[in-house]
Amino acid sequence: MGNLYLGVNMEFVRHDDKPFEWGVDKAAELGYEYVEPMVHWGRELLSEAGYFHSVSMLDDPLRIKRACDNAGIKLSGLSAHTPLCKPEISTEYLKQAIRFAAEIGAPVINTDEGPKPSWTTPDEDHVLMGYVLHEAAQVAEPRGILIGLEPHQQYSKDPDGLDRIYDLVDSLAIGINFDTGNSYLCGHDPIEWLERVKDRLVHLHAKEIPGQQAEDERGKVTGTAVGCACGEGVIDWAEVVRVCKSAPRDIVMSVECGTVDEAKRSIAYLRDLI
Prior knowledge:
This protein is of the alpha/beta class.
């Protein structure tokens, strides 16, 4: 069985209008051992001006490593979500994210199938996803990088659908980035689903769902951007911890919430359970 660690997805500083380095320092200040940065392709105004945490993959990747080294914090992976159903976007994006991750020591890149084209059939979409994942796996395997598939969109919204995507390519580089909140909102039992994928688990998004959102949206959506503070919603975190501790590899529970205060309350709650 593996070890279990606490990290935080950089979305927790999305509303603070601060740059990436500020968010890394804040995560370390709160006591997190790991961060999960978000990367993007090209350039956009907010990040360039220092008002948003995402890092362009046109930047020197050592920018991320230096910030983490200076704060005494490690990388659990990169949030590299891109629509697998759209190979004109996702193929080169994922390959660059993998190379980026390899250079800075991030062991996992996380993604999902994303919004699909309006004109393709489900079978066509799976052929397209298989192409993208095969290309990405060929880059990931020799670098020792894992690709975490997350339940988040139209095809991964149930266990069979996520497994179908996972089974498209036979590669040890492909695993599961399980999201507790998305799986719950899809209408499934996250603990049963987590048990099903634990042998393939490479990373976990620790996303809590508040009671009112659960009541309003469960079974009607495939996921949500961020959750509330862990321990203040509907997820059975003691069971999540139990299952993760029985997984064969070390797992980082990357808290996915929307504010610094929620991240602070989440680590206080989860640290006791772990």
